Amino acid sequence: MRERADNAIAKRVRRHADVRVAHDGREGLAQVEEAFPDLIVCDVEMPNLTGPDMAYRIFLRDAGAEKIPILLISGVRDLREVAQQVGTTYFLSKPVSVERLFATLTRALVERVPPQPRV
Fold it and tell me: Over the stretch 22-35, which tens digit does the pLDDT of each residue have?
């Protein structure tokens, strides 16, 4: 059910942007290395590599991808704290409406504030 909802959102976003979907953090990291996206959207709790761990690896590689804004979407209780650790101002608590998602995506793409993680 969750995968269907994620795919429905990705399909709707695809009308306005190029969307690549990764099924875990390692796959997401590989996709970022392959071609820099305008924005990274990820969950905090992903298999194989969490969203925050993926963000730190991007930051530590210091190859340009660390300037890509990151939007965290998660159901974890302390999402605000996780976002502060990652250094992103873009985060949404699940469940999230499509309207709120689009508004935050638009804001992140316009502002383009890169993460500034606590290290």
Answer: 989 999 999 999 99
Cα separation of 97 and 102, whole Å?
9
Q: Which residues contact 4 (CB under 8 A, 6 or more apart)?
A: none
pLDDT digits (tens, 9 = 90+) for 79-119: 999 999 999 999 999 999 888 998 999 999 999 999 998 86
DSSP string, the chain: -HHHHHHHHHHHHHTTS-----SSHHHHHHHHHHS--S-EEE-SS-SSS-HHHHHHHHHHH-SSGGGS-EEEEE--TTHHHHHHHHT-SEEEESS--HHHHHHHHHHHHHH-PPP----
Q: Which residues pair with 40 in a beta bridge?
A: 70
Q: Which CATH architecture has domain 2-111?
A: 3-Layer(aba) Sandwich (3.40)
Domain boundaries, the chain: 2-111
